Structure formats: structure tokens, C-alpha cells
Amino acid sequence: MAQIVTYRDLVVWQRSVEMVVAIYSLTELFPTAERYGLTAQMRRAAVSVPSNIAEGRRRGSRKEYRQFMLIAYGSGAELETQIEIAKRLSFGDSEHFDKAESLLSEVMRMLNKVLSILRS
Q1: Across the chain, how many H-helices and E-strands are there?
Q2: Is residue 71 included in any domain, yes or no?
Q3: What is the rounded CA–CA span in Å between residue 55 and residue 84?
Q4: Which NCBIfam families match (predicted)?
């Protein structure tokens, strides 16, 4: 197992950045009228995940790290909801939804694991 030196070494951070790219690709397909609505909200929630992982990792204490991981997890939950709404509104296509949801699911599982370790 590779040594973790910086947040960039965390697989959860790496996958969450991939997820952000997938969300941007997905939301590119949304109607222009959604630019300041669902598109902006989804992008903000997605970007929040790796941003909070990075900030938490840079903080000095385990308690602060856990708090920022909880925030990242919460942003992931927001994004899950927003993806569901976009699907019900028939924005985007199934290929882009599948990729975004797959990455988000993977990130959420990893965050859950990290949080369970930080709780103990």
C-alpha cells in the first residue's frame, strides 16, 4: 500500500475529482434554462466533495478531518438527490447518468468507510 503524503494520494479524492468531471459532462447536456438552476447546484455539490476532502486532510486534527469528511458526504447526498431530479426531468442521457452515478456511488462508499474508521 502506498504511503499517503497529501490529499492527492487519497483514492477517494482522486475518484471524487473524476466524478466532478463526469458531472460537468452530464450537466453540459442540460437545457440552457437550467444553467443557473440545477446545473449550477449539481456542479457546486460535486466540487464540494473533493474540496472538503482536501481541506479536511490539510487540517491539523482528526476531529476536523472527520468534520470535513462529513461535509463531503453530505454534499454527495445532495448530489444523489439532484441526479435523481435531473433523471425524472429527462435531462441528459443514460450513458452520462450511469457514469456519474457509478463514480458517486464509489465515492460515497469510500467516504462511509473513512468515516467509520474516524469514528473508532
Answers
A1: 4, 0
A2: yes
A3: 28
A4: four helix bundle protein
Q: What confidence tens digit (pLDDT) does each residue in 20-58 have?
A: 999 999 999 999 999 999 999 999 999 999 999 999 999
**Predicted pLDDT at 60:** 77
Number of domains in the chain: 1
pLDDT tens for 93-103 read 999 999 999 99
Q: What is the mean pLDDT of the chain?
A: 95
* Residue 18 domain flag: yes
- Which residue in 84, 72, 54 sits closest to 110, CA to CA? 72
CB within 8 Å of 60: residues ≥ 6 apart:
none
Report yes or no on 45 lying in a domain: yes
Domain membership of residue 99 as a residue range: 7-119
DSSP state of 36: T
Question: Model's pTM, two decimal places?
Answer: 0.94
Say if 11 falls within a structural domain.
yes
Distance CA 98, CA 115 (A): 25
For residue 85 the three cell numbers come to 431530479
